[in-house]
User: Fold this.
Amino acid sequence: MEIIENIASMQAFAERKRMEGKLMGLVPTMGSLHEGHLTLIREAKSRTDIVVVSIFVNPTQFGPGEDYDSYPRDLEGDARKVISAGGDMIFSPSASDMYPEGYLTYVDVGKVTEPLCGLSRPEHFRAVATVVNKLFNIIKPHKAFFGQKDYQQSVVIKRMVKDLNMDIDIIVLPTVREPDGLAMSSRNSYLSEEERKVSPVLYKSLTIASCMIRDREKNARKILSAIKRMIEKEPLVSIDYIAITDSETLKDIDEIKGKTLIALAVRIGKMRLIDNILTEPQGS
Assistant:
């Protein structure tokens, strides 16, 4: 398996494979791969001929005081994992190549970037949309694979692809979880032993909320209160946001009527963790 670091070389490889009639799949990552990423790679391999895994720790999507410098990087170890999952190629460009001196162009997707994580990270999705747009232009995949854990990100990418008439199929796969329900994330390794023990409260609270909705509770405020009460029982956990929204527009809703997103972000120690669940009333 080859690792390509040069943008022009990646473009040439992708163009050659497309000319050969190969179906190209892309799994965008920031490295430090875990089972969630490997699930995406395996699914990409089942649906496409050539699977490119991008590994790029994007500096523009880290805010002031966030963990860009300390973000885990292990290209050699990641390469072994990509091979084991059936990936064909790693694209790992440098920040200076992706954002050369004088770089000016960014992609702003608008309203879907504003709620949820956008409230506390206002520039984050602008950076995400820009780097994914660049990866799509460089690799030109037919299909790109994302995880539901970053649900808002997937909504932003789908909107960008639709609005800019990109001929790319965006595939979102269910969140991969640890046995105790914690959503897999590269940042989980930062948690202390005590912090790790309390972290399953995120998924437990989401599960309770989902059960309330399936049992036909329609009042969003009551559901939000139930989530908040459960999380606040853990003194190590502080809430960034809890939201119940329309699954497509991400607008807050007061009454549950159909497919609904329940999303939250918390801080445990120094780490900010996110999670979500999609649910709807029985019989809807």
Q: What stands out?
A: Strands lie at 2-4, 24-29, 50-55, 89-91, 143-147, 169-173, 237-246, 260-268, 271-279. The radius of gyration is 19 Å. The first strand starts at residue 2 and ends at 4.
